[in-house]
Amino acid sequence: MEKVINCFKRNPEAVARLICFPWAGGGSLHYARWGNLLSSVEVFAVKLPGRESRTKEPFSQNMQQIVDEVIDVLLPLLKEKPFALFGHSFGSYTSFAVADALKKLHNLQPVHIFLSGASAPYSEIRIKAPKRSDLSDDDFLKWLTSIGGTPPELLGNPEVMERFLPVLKADLHVVENYRCNKPDHPFLSCPVTCFDGKDDVPHDLQAWKDITSGDFTIRMLDGAHFYLKESGNEKHILEYITNHLETLDMDYF
Question: Is 225 a catalytic residue?
Fold first, then answer.
């Protein structure tokens, strides 16, 4: 499991597990440290191929590869106790794809899905979004600078960018080629919460409501695309997650 999951703090007494999926180009450390901050929730942060301890592995070529690997590793644990999913941007799509596969193949569903910074995968905004993974490095860097969230010292370091850009482009290639149809009927009954930055580009958050018959909530926080890196917003998100997972309705599990 250690190859795919980063867990800073195992917590057998946790009321639930939170499975966190990285944003494009991201690693597991940002989420893994949440495990040290949450006393009642055990945090599993997903490590994708091509980064961190998996730098020598080839990047995932499509969403199905990511879904298959995550489910193969986590399925026994997901049957043990309630679990929730969290994903930001690219991570929202991997969260959705994993939830879809778990329900269809194993009749399992999370007790809550927390999605951030992304339109629903079948929404018009998302389908018509320009592809970034095919841009030249120069144009890609200009776009990356425009959305914020990447420290300027990294953007200005050619050696770091040489390692970082292929990872980011590989993840964007996966999400830009991921296609799914709008559900005819909600396939989940658990609550879904969407977070987003008020200053980010507009996302079709409302379209995520189509995946569940349960409660649906949108929460807008100050900041742009990487609003969740700001300490005040992170504190709000973690308190929100904790409050909802500590008061689970076990009918969802």
Answer: yes
